[in-house]
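TL;DR need structure tokens for one chain.
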Amino acid sequence: MKEIIKAEPCGFCMGVRRAIDLVEKEIGQGEDLFTLGPIIHNRQVQENLASRGVRLADIPEDVSEGSSLVIRAHGVEPELEERLMSRGVKIIDGTCPKVKSSHRTIEEYSGNGYFVVILGDKNHGEVKGLAGRADRHAVVSTASEAEKLTLPEKTLFICQTTVKDSEFEEVRDILLTKNPHTVIRNMICAATMKRQKAVRELSTRVEAMVIVGGRGSSNTKRLYQTALENDIFACHVETADELPPELHKFSCIGVSAGASTPDDIIDEVMERLRSL
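>> reply
TL;DR here they are.
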């Protein structure tokens, strides 16, 4: 019989669970209910919410006037919030408290004339929300991009909450070489670091790793990258139906999941692996 080992912690983090709970609380309250972009990066969760009347808006103007909207855990740009309020939309703020802390840090330093360097995925909602709070900023996704920067004396370095610690450290060292006075704020979420550490350790004890989560989930993609570091077979799937046939040859398989992956999807993947 196959041995299937689940990494701990795994699945929903506090910020994601809080955002989902806020949506659940608003369903059926009598007003049209929207989210601006997917509430979390998980297709199955989004489809479930849509089937219960939660509507997805791409821009504030897609939100009906006088309706309710839950801001997702990633947060949004201040400009988008202003456009929503101008339409009389009731805003329920589901922004993760850790992301909120990053917002306050950027607002404080930017207000004091600092240039802000943000490490993260340029097109990710969280990064857009961070950048929207800085008067002057640059977003970098790689060390090579950081190498090209020219830094003023007053510079703040901050990061998306889901980047890998190795990514943060590499860019931090480059920026400090350019400007030793750069203010460093490591905002990687503790839940993110614990999940990456758990995958790193588990992947040394198994023959293969399965990472479960949405294709658009930044933290899930980084868990997959972490699993590959130990040169073992690893795959990234959204559901049990996507499990590759190669897994049947392994007798010991590790499983982890991104912070936006529900428990029932993780359980289904593990049950399917046991039956291979």
